[in-house]
UniProtKB/TrEMBL annotation:
InterPro entries: Integral_membrane_TerC (IPR005496), Integral_membrane_YjbE (IPR022301). This is Integral membrane protein. NCBIfam families: R_switched_YjbE. Belongs to the TerC family. It is a multi-pass membrane protein. The keyword Coiled coil does not apply. It comes from Paenibacillus pasadenensis. GO terms for cellular component: membrane. Keywords: Membrane, Transmembrane, Transmembrane helix. Its main location: membrane. It is found in: Membrane. Pfam families: TerC.
Length: 229
C-alpha cells in the first residue's frame, strides 16, 4: 500500500500535464493515409514513452545532487501555477508529416519538448523509486493517448479538476522542498511542521491562480468597452 498513493499521484499528474499529447499526435498524423495513421500513433507513442522513462530516471538520479530538490520544488510551484492560469495553447507550429517516419519523428520530438514539466513532476512524486516511474508511465500513457481528449472535455466541464491537479502538484513541490537535505533543519522538530509548509505551498498556488483569473476577468470588460468606442 506504500506505493499505491505515489503511483496514483503519478498517473494523475500524467493525465493533468499531458493533455496536449493527443492533439499533437492528431496534428502530426493528419496528412497520412488512414492505414498509416494508426501506425504513427502507436510507434510515435512508443518512442515518446521510451524517451520520457529515460529522462525521468535521469532526473530521479540527479535529484540526489545538493539543492536540486529545492530548485525542482520551486520550479514545480511555477508549473502548478501555470497549469491554472495558462491560456489555450496554440499548436500551429506542429507540422503534419507527409511520411510515416516524419509523423513519428514529429510526435516524439514534440512530446520531448512539451514533457519537461511532466518529467520533473513525476520524478518528484516517485520519491526516488524508479519502478514507480515506469509503472506510472506504462499505466497512464495509453490513457493519455486515447483518452486525453475526453479528459480535456471533463476539465472544461468540471473546472475544479484543474484545481485538484494544481493542489497535487503543489503537494509534490512542497514535499520536494522539505526533502532538500541542505534545509531539512528548517522543518520538523524545532522548525516549521512539514504538513503546515506543504499546506501553505498548496494554498499559495491555488490562491494565486484564483486571483490571477479574477484580475483577467475584470480586465476583459474594460478591454471590450474600449474596442466598441
Amino acid at each position: 500500500m506504500e506505493w499505491l498513493g505515489p503511483l496514483l499521484t503519478i498517473v494523475f499528474i500524467d493525465l493533468m500535464l499531458a493533455g496536449d499529447n493527443a492533439i499533437v499526435i492528431a496534428l502530426a498524423a493528419r496528412n497520412l493515409p488512414k492505414h498509416q495513421q494508426k501506425k504513427a500513433v502507436i510507434w510515435g507513442t512508443f518512442g515518446a514513452i521510451a524517451i520520457r522513462i529515460v529522462a525521468t530516471v535521469l532526473v530521479v538520479k540527479l535529484l540526489d545532487i545538493p539543492w536540486l530538490h529545492l530548485a525542482g520544488g520551486l520550479l514545480l510551484v511555477w508549473i502548478a501555477y501555470k497549469l491554472l492560469v495558462q491560456e489555450e495553447s496554440s499548436h500551429d507550429n506542429i507540422k503534419a508529416g507527409s511520411t510515416l517516419g516524419q509523423a513519428i519523428g514529429t510526435i516524439v520530438l514534440a512530446d520531448a519538448a512539451m514533457g519537461i514539466d511532466n518529467v520533473l513532476a513525476v520524478a518528484g512524486a516517485s520519491h526516488g523509486n524508479i519502478w514507480l516511474v515506469i509503472a506510472g508511465l506504462i499505466i497512464s500513457i495509453p490513457i493519455v493517448v486515447w483518452g486525453s481528449t475526453l479528459f480535456i472535455r471533463l476539465i472544461e466541464r468540471f473546472s475544479w479538476i484543474l484545481y485538484v491537479g494544481a493542489a497535487i502538484l503543489g503537494y509534490t513541490a512542497g514535499h520536494m522542498i522539505t526533502g532538500e537535505k541542505k534545509i531539512a533543519h528548517l522543518f520538523g522538530n524545532g522548525g516549521i511542521p512539514e504538513w503546515l509548509f506543504i499546506g501553505l505551498v498548496v494554498a499559495l498556488i491555488v490562491g494565486a491562480g484564483i486571483l490571477t483569473k479574477a484580475i483577467r476577468k475584470n480586465k476583459q470588460p474594460a478591454h471590450r468597452e474600449r474596442e466598441t468606442h
